[in-house]
Amino acid sequence: MASTSRLDALPRVTCPNHPDAILVEDYRAGDMICPECGLVVGDRVIDVGSEWRTFSNDKATKDPSRVGDSQNPLLSDGDLSTMIGKGTGAASFDEFGNSKYQNRRTMSSSDRAMMNAFKEITTMADRINLPRNIVDRTNNLFKQVYEQKSLKGRANDAIASACLYIACRQEGVPRTFKEICAVSRISKKEIGRCFKLILKALETSVDLITTGDFMSRFCSNLCLPKQVQMAATHIARKAVELDLVPGRSPISVAAAAIYMASQASAEKRTQKEIGDIAGVADVTIRQSYRLIYPRAPDLFPPDFKFDTPVDKLPQL
Amino acid sequence: PMTPITPATPASESSGIVPQLLYAFKSRKIWNKNSENIVSTVNLGCKLDLKTIALRARNAEYNPKVRLASIQITCFPPLSSEEQSRLAARKYARVVQKLGFPAKFLDFKIQNMVGSCDVKFPIRLEGLVLTHQQFSSYEPELFPGLIYRMIKPRIVLLIFVSGKVVLTGAKVRAEIYEAFENIYPILKGFRKTT
């Protein structure tokens, strides 16, 4: 009999004779069995995993064996709520044709706001194609913040946006505040404020952003070939190492590096285009570019093929 | 687990640099937005018709939308000592008196003092934020300076790459000096070598 043993099912039941034994679960019969003596300890254990496999896709709405949605225990407070379903048969409609018992809507009212926020997070993440792991991390962060209640006065959307920002940072693929702004209705200022508050509330910190974090995204959005991207990464890294750009935001340095690399290659991009993608003003790119321009020959990677030689690079 | 309250300072060293106090704010009812000015609202001990005062007194601005009902009074030049700020507040009470309100000069209190100085060497903010995570916040996207919240004394320092430091949140002058003496050896440790 195939069984799976689940450690987290332990807290409540142990075999009276062998308290240390890990109970083995037989989900087919709904039993929990002690492996030492074979005693059936738990009976009629409810399986909270996903439902039986259904192959037919046509009658998806009318699956009579479903007892409810698959639980999301990590996030909501447990989906143990009852809804009144749509009526069948004549008795469920009153004189005007409206259904009696219209109350389908109230479910898990205690976490309505949280579920709303999760929906909002998923929407935002979807707009910039963020993978599921970031969304999950964001949801977790939001839940922690929400339960703590220290940021209760702030708009949930602001907290959600800030959580999304933090999740991206924690996963090692930071998004700029402006990118998060683009998919959220909250201002950059408010997201920044919430960001700092959340870090304080959860007592976490995030790594500092570097120029390399954004290279692949910006270069792809500009349709630049891989060599240009690698060159830009190299230029930005070297510029920071040589301390040519003290005090400049890494985004601005990255944008200037992309400009330099693209201008040296066959795929030239204007400052305005780069500024649009990176979210920096073109004067900002100009500023940073002026700082790295004097050392341009040292910044390029050694194996770079110049379409425009270094001395012909635009001087702004 | 409590983090160390103050960074350790070797007893032998003194920085030899004295932060210069820029302005002293006293604000109780008046809310000051423009940091160049001294805000003075001592408790004048009487009800004021803010609109009348704002209209008739020079150097006074009244912004009714701001949550705290208050008048901003601007003084030039920025005041450099506590005594001067008290004087300015007295002068203002006089102005309000002349406008016909029975103003008195009660509860004068300095609420905030700001100081600035220069350590004269560039600083590696990235290193500082790495080692002093619990106190520092450095987000180049949000603000170019590192925001260091010292716990003892409770002062907020804005530390910049150039080596300039702004200290704020002090109620008395000594706190500013103490905070600076605390931070100076740390900053020396993160001096840029190139």
From TrEMBL, chain A:
Cite the TFIIB-type domain residue spans from the record: 11-42
Q: What class of enzyme is it?
A: transferase
This enzyme catalyses: L-lysyl-[protein] + acetyl-CoA = N(6)-acetyl-L-lysyl-[protein] + CoA + H(+)
Q: What is its EC number?
A: 2.3.1.48
Pfam families per record: TFIIB, Zn_Ribbon_TF
User: What does the UniProt function comment say about this protein?
Assistant: General transcription factor that plays a role in transcription initiation by RNA polymerase II (Pol II). Involved in the pre-initiation complex (PIC) formation and Pol II recruitment at promoter DNA. Together with the TATA box-bound TBP forms the core initiation complex and provides a bridge between TBP and the Pol II-TFIIF complex. Released from the PIC early following the onset of transcription during the initiation and elongation transition and reassociates with TBP during the next transcription cycle. Associates with chromatin to core promoter-specific regions.
Task: Name it.
Answer: Transcription initiation factor IIB
TrEMBL record, chain B:
Family per record: Belongs to the TBP family.
Where would you say this protein principally sits, based on its record? nucleus
Tree of life domain: Eukaryota
Q: Which keywords does the record carry? A: DNA-binding, Nucleus, Transcription
Q: Which GO terms describe its biological process?
A: DNA-templated transcription initiation
User: What name has this protein been given in UniProt?
Assistant: TATA-box binding protein
Provide the coiled-coil residue spans: none
- Database matches in PROSITE patterns: TFIID (PS00351)
- What gene does this protein come from? TBP
Where, per UniProt, does this protein localize?
Answer: Nucleus
Organism per entry: Ictidomys tridecemlineatus
**GO cellular component labels:** nucleus
The protein's GO terms of the molecular function aspect are: DNA binding
